[in-house]
Design a protein that fits this description.
Length: about 60
Amino acid sequence: MTVRRRGASPLTVTLLVGAASPSDAAQLATAVAERDRGGMFEAGRVRLARVAAGTELDAIG
C-alpha cells in the first residue's frame, strides 16, 4: 500500500498492512501514516503482498 502526503512537505510512504479488502487497507494505511508522520495522507497504489504462512507481522495497538 502506497500513501502520499500532500502539502508543503510531500512524502510517499509504502506500508504493509493486513486487511480484508483494498478499501480497508487504504483506510488503515492512511491512518497509520497520519499518526506516525503527521499531515494528511491519501491512498495511492494498492498491491497484494505475498507473505509466507506463519510470518509474524507487528500489530498496531
